[in-house]
């Protein structure tokens, strides 16, 4: 089973709202990722967690705040977003990037379609 | 720095025809290469990957890809396209450094299938 689940599927929020995106996997993977994908563009990496510790932050604005409460769960907390943050947010997981290196294959969830009004 | 180029933004093929999607990479070391497919509004599904060994790799849904080091290419092929193959296809190269594991994606190729 290579399933990564994401909730909600769609989210509409105002610029003053606080909301969270949730990602879950039960494959025993120890690395989890957040990507942002604008329309007709490839995914762009935002954050990487390895063994529940943040290992990569691709200079993402502080209005995006990731959290990894345990090895199965990854959250992305959103606050004071801008309309240009509207995008598809993808979560991915991989078995163990520290052991596997570049062969550690990432498996993606279906995404959350975020609209900021 | 590594990069991935997918020269064709759009490709249209007739159902039942063969397909080849091009991918060229720029990477100094041994490349770790992936093809993903994304249906509209969906996440990415892994089609196949190449790390080493046999340069012709088989994937899911009848897809295959051939790694050609001399041409820095990793083209995706399918002998007979089905209407359900219409989607966006992304080629990616994996990079691992002290910070962690990162994928660099190409710009994507949108495949349309004519009945």
Written overview of the protein:
The complex is a heterodimer of chains A (117) and B (115). Chain A has 117 residues and is mainly β. Chain A contains 1 helix and 11 strands. Chain A has one helix at residues 97-100; strands at residues 4-7, 10-13, 18-25, 31-37, 44-50, 53-57, 64-70, 73-79, 87-94, 107-108, 112-116. In chain A, the strands form 2 sheets. In chain A, strands 2, 4, 5, 6, 9, 10 and 11 form a 7-stranded mixed sheet that branches. In chain A, strands 1-3-8-7 form a 4-stranded antiparallel sheet, with no helix packed on it. The mean pLDDT of chain A is 92. Chain B is mostly beta strands and 115 residues long. Chain B is 0% helix and 55% strand. In chain B, the strands form 3 sheets. In chain B, strands 2, 5, 6, 10, 11 and 12 form a 6-stranded mixed sheet that branches. In chain B, strands 3-9-8-7 form a 4-stranded antiparallel sheet, with no helix packed on it. In chain B, a hairpin with a 4-residue loop joins strand 10 (87-96) and strand 11. Chain A binds chain B through residues 2, 4, 6, 31, 40-43, 45, 48, 50, 55-56, 88, 90, 92, 94, 97-98, 100-111, 113, and chain B through 32, 34, 36, 41-46, 49, 51, 90, 94-96, 99-103, 105-108.
